Structure formats: C-alpha cells, structure tokens
Amino acid sequence: MKNFFEKKKQPQVQEPMDLDAVMKKFDRESNIRIWEGKPKMVVSSILAIFALFCIYVTLFTSWLEEIRLTSFVAFIILIGYIVFPAKKGEQKVNHMPWYDIVLMLLGTGSFLYYTVNAITIIQQGSNFNTIQIIIGLVGILSLAEVCRRSVGVPILIVLGCLLVYALIWGLSNPTLGGKLNYAIRYLFYSKEGIFSTPINVCSKFIVVFIIFGAFLERTGIADFFINISNAVVGGFSGGPAKVAVVASAMEGMVSGSSVANTVGSGSVTIPLMKKTGYKPEFAAAAEASASTGGQIMPPIMGAAAFLMADYVGVPYSNIVVRAILPAVLYFAGVFITVHLEAKKEGLRGLTREELPRIKPLLKQIYLLLPLILLVYLVGTSQRSIQYAAAIAIIVAIVVSLFNKENRITPKRIWEALAAGGQGMITVAAACGVAGMIAGTITMTGLANMMINGIVALAGDQIIIALVLTMLCCIVLGMGVPTTANYCIMAATCAPILIRMGVPTLAAHFFVFYFGIVADLTPPVALAAYAGAAIAQANPMKTAFTATKLAIGAFIVPYVFALNPAMLFIDTTPGAIVLICITSLVGIFAVSASLEGWFKCHMKWYERVLSLIGGLLLIYPGLVTDITGLAFVAVMVVMQFVDKNREKKTV
Question: What's the whole-model pTM score?
C-alpha cells in the first residue's frame, strides 16, 4: 500500500541532515564501535547471550543477591568495553585497542571475583585485605569508565564531587588511606553502593522490558504509531505538529530516551511541520517537548516507574495509575499550544492525498496486543512484572507473523536479543553509578545535612522548599539518563519534601518530573538540541520554546505536591472526575495565555486573566475551581467580543 510515509522519501520532504550524525552528537548510546563480518557475529552473539542470561536469571533462578548482581555487572563491564570506544569520532572497523582489552579484563575480573567468593566476603564482615580493596577500586573505576563512555560525563562529575567531599571532610577516619579503604568497602562490597536498589531493580525488571522494547520495535509498531496519528489528527490545522505530540505520547510508552524519541519520530514530523508553515524553532521544540514527555507516560515511564515502586514500597500498577492524569495534562498542554500556534499563523493540515487511509491501518491494530496484554497482566497482578514482560515478548513475536514486512524470523529474534543486550549497558551503568552517588550521600550523612539546610531555609513555607528542590533537580538532572536521574533525585531531593510534609508518592513524582525536564531546559537541553539539529534551527531558541511548550511539567508537580488529589490520593471517584475536567480546562487556559491566542490575539490583561484562571482550575478545590472558571469565562467573553470587532472592521 502506498501511503504518505512512503512519500516522505521523495525530494520535497527530504531529511535536512544525517540522522546518524545527530544521534552520535546528542546521544551517547549511538557512539559505538564498528564491527563487521565474523567479529560482528561474535559481538552480536555475546550481546544476545547476555540478554538470554538476564531472562533466565530473573525468571528461573533464586540465586543469592550478591551472586546475581555481581555477575550481572560483570557482564555489563564486558560488553560495555566491547561496544563503546574510549572517545567519539571515526572508529577503525573491527578494532579494539589493547588498553581497552586490559581494562575490560580487569573490570570484568573484579566483579567476577566477588561472584565466585560471595559467601566468603559476606562472612568476613569488615575484615578486608589489601588485595580485596584494590579489586574493589578497580571495579569502581572500570564501571565509572563504562558509564563515561555510554552515558557521559555529567553524572560522573556529581559522583566525583561527592567522593572528594567524602575523602576530605565527610568521613571521620583520621587518615586518607583509612577513608579510602572504608569508601571502597562501602561502595563495592556492601548493598549501599553499586549493588543497591537501582542496579537491583535494573537487573530484575528493567532488563526484561528493554528486551521487550527491542522485540516490539521489530514488529513495526513505531511506524504504526506515526501512521495512525497522521490518519487521526494529520488533516487538522497544523496537523504534523499534532502528529508529533500524539505519536510521541504513544512511543513514550515503550521508549526510554528523550533524544532517541526526538530523532526517531522527528525525522518525519519536523520536516513536515516546517513544510506546513511552522517556524523551525517551534517545529523542533514541539517534537522535543512531546518526545521528552514520553518519559512520564505510563506504563513504562522511562523505566523509572519500577524504581519508584521499589523506593516508595507500593505495587508497580499503583505507580502507573497515579501517573495517568499528570501525563495527560502534560501532553494536553503541548497539543493545545501547537493547535493555537497553528490557528494564530493560519496553518493548514495535510491534504487528503497526503494522509494515510484509516481502514488499512485498523487492520494492523493487532500490533498493540503485546502492550495491551502487558498492561493487563501487570495491572491485575496476575503475573509478576518479569513474567508479564516475558509473555509480552512471546506475543510480540506471534503478532509479527501476520505482518510480512516486519515478521520476526529466528534471525531477527537473535538481532532483537542482541539489541536488547546492548540497550542494557547504558541503563545498568547509569544505575550502578547512581547507586554509588546515593551510597556516598548516605555514607557521609550529607543527605541529612541537605535536608536540614533546605528545611531551615524554607522555614514553614513549603513553596520555598518546592522551588529549591526544583532547581536542584534540574541542575542535577542535566545530561543524565531517566533512570539514573530519578535515582539521584530520590536519594537527594525527595526526602527534603517528605520532611516538609509532602506525601511520599507525591514527593517522588515531583522530583521525577523536574529531573526529566532537564532534557528541555537550557543550557543542556539535549532533546531540544537534537530537534534543532534536524530542523536546522537555533538550538537555544528551540530550548526556550520547548520549555514554554512543556509548561505542564513545571506546573502540575507543584499542584500534586500541594494537593495530592491529582495523584488520586485521599480522594473520591466523583472528585477525580471533577479534577480531570477542571485540570484540562485549566491547562487550556494556561496554554492560551502563554501562546497569546484563543479566538484572536489576546491583550495583556486577557492573558493575565487566562493564566490566573488556568492555574486556579488546575489546583484541586471547589473554591479555586469556581474562581478560576470565572476568570476564564471573562477571558472567553472578551475574546469573542474582540473577534466580532475584528470581523466588523474587516
């Protein structure tokens, strides 16, 4: 069937630049060694075997935790050095420098030493000899280097600063050697450092979902998301931008990278937005803000939902349900803004000839079956999270058999396993380093100092604590992947809000949201910069525009921190319905105020009325709802009057 997405290959909709170059520039995971021929087969086999190992261990074994985690990280070190070179740039084909081989063997060996001697190490208490301390140091450094190669430097800067603090001021041992000895034992040989909650959750839950995502990708579901979004909203005013929002929301359910989302769907939507009439900065910002929002969209939420469930101590399904309304408000805000921008600029949608036909697409609705089954199994708790993901993988293979173009053959199964194995490196390395960051904070007592400091500074004013926490989250989250980002926030910032009286779940959602928006917020804004590269737009203007589009991510967390009813905490079904309606009207009013357009250009006082009314409507409460509705109603009446005047003038 010839549809619109085959036409994107025609000259008039060419991609403005090399997408691989964009990914390599803004996404560390894309800077990998080049393997071809037999070496490529060997590397792919190692990655696939690792994926199978993870599935086997998490589903069918009851290994001692120290054995399971150390063997898992040993594998990560091994494949991390095989896949990622020491620096960016052109790589020699089938080449791995001797020093990388040495680092790989030393790092892998240090963790395997722990695996083999786990029982002895557990029983010996704090009596570690010099050789064991050296092995621990080698393990820590080798993991940090894999993290540098696959994730980047920002997260290591945070760890480095904390370790310097620990070795100079934070630990009570009188000698530097004694402090170093204690730090290595704490971070490498205990469950408070590398082998703490982040890597534990990663090895048990996240890895299976990464493999599931690799299989789901091969069913062609990403193209289906874009096609179905085009068929549904592509013909409306400013259609391509709305496609970007809807498709990114759906892709976010299975993807864990803001940059990958931006480049993946943006390669199609951004050129189309420009062709329709959107300014390059706005087109790039719309895609980046929608793609970043994929990290907060249930059920996957960039894999952070699994970590949150473990930290907070509630079922995973509970986290997913409570995340729905905030995520809907976020995407509603972006969708409304691109709609108002299209109306303001008089932009059209795609023509009937450009749109894919809906009937052939409906025949592919079976592609959603793995996702639907996964959500059902997890939501009803009929199976563990791991088993639910494993069953969903099998279903993904089965549904692919009905699609000739994307049928998952035995060869493609092996490729999917290899892709899943490779996808684990970045997440696991980031989780390991995030565990060391949390461990260092705990080891030095810095967490209590931070909490006491901000609580003292804020006094009784919780809003001050929220603002300070937001700034910490944005700064610490810059350039850090979603999962590691949340781990750092959960260890450093969430306890501050909990101490101030914010419910535990609301506090964790708050820090998670503001850690995510670092991908849009200048000066780092990796997702915005990636979108700007595709659109050939000004990166900084794109980042500021994306921040405006993502305004929901800056407002909604304050609302559920101050009133957890938005997270369906301590409320009733009737109140939930009311919250949903008033919040959606409120986010519309806020978006209209920022865009400066409703029925026509808004005067400054109309924008103020709309902003205040929208914020009051988003905040749950009868008085705020009535007041906010009155403000918005006045603005709407004014806009209709202004519109009628314009018509009479014309």
Answer: 0.86
